[in-house]
Amino acid sequence: MTVLPGLWDMHVHTMINGHADYDYWDRTYPPLLKDVIMPSSAHQLLMAGVTSARDLGGPLEESIAVRDAINRGEIPGATLYVSGPFIQHKPYPGTEDFRWGVNNPEDGRAKIRKLAKAGVDMVKLIDHDQMTMAVLEAVVDEAHKNNLKVVAHGHRPNEIRRGLQVGVDCFEHTGLSSAPEYPEDIIVQIKERTAQMNLGPLFWCPTVEGLYNYEYVRDNPEKLDNDSWHLGLPDSVVVDIKNSIAHPDRLPYFQLTPVRRPTLKTKIKQLMDAGVVLMIGTDSGIPMKFHSQSTWNELDVWVNEFGIDPMYAIRAATYWPALWMGVADEVGTITPGKYADIIAVDGDVLRYISLLQDVDLVIKHGKRYK
Q1: What element of type H or E holds 212?
Q2: Torsions phi, psi for 339 (to 5 deg)
Q3: pLDDT of res. 56
Q4: How deeply is 95 buried, as exposed, middle or buried, from its count of CB atoms within 10 A (0-12, 13-18, 19+)?
């Protein structure tokens, strides 16, 4: 067996479960989020060997309630670190419960204080290239004053440029759509940041698996039949999700993906060459991406497709996330005095990273779940 620390997934969405129609989901399932959907996602993560996860974007009350119920031992699930609602310039229609718009610097500070008072673990920024710099600076400053790190989307060039300028703590996604690489000025900015040892590492979650594997899943949809993602979901919801992904080739969400896919390896190499520390995050919960499968798929793409060292990938899913979250004295390595968050697989995971698709043993905080 290979014994290793419980995995982390640093970018999940427990409020979604792989359904292909967000508008329909957001209209239909809010009443089930707290008691069914989000607990089911957290339980599926745990059974996949993910003992801790960053939940980046969800309704505030439900996110806190599910996190705390898991921490009290009332329901089984990965230990969640939650951001509550996305902070952005303006929420998309129908998403106001889990996306908060900020209009001016004072409004930005007030909303961050409200999140801090509610007890969130970090702040999630998106579309901050649409904010004024005054608003963005106020949001990040207020978060840091309240000892909250700021996680920011890195989809568009100015999201990255501005995020670096105001000192966000982690970027998400291998962005820039189908552009072949990051612009030179952004790489220069990243290198300037990674050269400042006193600021610590610059962290990045590239979330490539959903993009990289889409065409394979489209052409070989058998993995969607795996019932591991049914855990905790009523039959009616399972059927609803199945129907929404019955035709993987028709999903609008992925139509540009085949053009984006060839750019991913180049962008990851650029980030690594610039001194960024990558962490495993998956965007789990997006269409056809289930909490029971996403994390090992991300590790598999890193190692087997991009040639990343297996131990680098495992540290990116164990040690670095615990350090980022400020809990490296409790979890993240198998060390005397820390919590027993431990998983095991049958075989040599440094040689066959895909063994993580079927974790044989899951212990979290000393309690065996599998």
Answers
A1: helix 209-212
A2: -60, 145
A3: 98
A4: middle
The number of helix segments (H) and strand segments (E) in the chain equals 16, 14
- Name the nearest CA neighbour of 54 among 188, 179, 170: 170
Half-sphere exposure of 191 (CA within 13 A, CB side): 10
- How many CA atoms within 13 Å lie on the side-chain side of 264? 24
User: pLDDT tens digits for 71-95?
Assistant: 999 999 999 999 999 999 999 999 9
Q: 133-145 vs 105-118: helix axis angle to the nearest 10?
A: 30
CB–CB of 14/285 below 8 Å? yes
Tell me the average pLDDT across 342-362: 98
Residue 138 and residue 47: Cα distance in Å, rounded?
A: 40
Mean pLDDT of 335-352: 98
Helix (H, G, I), strand (E, B) or coil at 338: coil
**Collapsed DSSP state (helix, strand, coil) of residue 179:** coil
Q: What is the largest CA-CA distance in the chain?
A: 55
CA distance 111 to 60: 12
Show Cβ contacts of residue 98 under 8 Å, excluding neighbours closer than 6 positions: 15, 57, 58, 59, 60, 84, 85, 86
The neighbour count for residue 312, using CB atoms within 10 Å, is: 14
Q: Is the pTM of this model over 0.85?
A: yes
Question: pLDDT tens, 260-301?
Answer: 999 999 999 999 999 999 999 999 999 999 999 999 999 999
Q: CB count, 10 Å around CB of 150?
A: 25
Report residue 38 as tokens: 């989000």
Across the range 125-135, mean pLDDT stands at 98
The tokens describing 262, both together, are 């060839």
Rounded to 5 degrees, φ, ψ at 214 are: -55, -50
Other C-beta atoms closer than 10 Å to the C-beta of 347 total 12
Give pLDDT, residue 57.
98
Q: Which residues sit opposite 204 in a β-bridge?
A: 171, 278
Q: Please tell me whether residue 200 adopts helix, strand or coil conformation.
A: coil
Question: What is the arithmetic mean of pLDDT over 159-185?
Answer: 97
CB count within 10 Å of CB 185 equals 11
Residue 365 three-state SS:
coil
d(CA 291, CA 177): 24
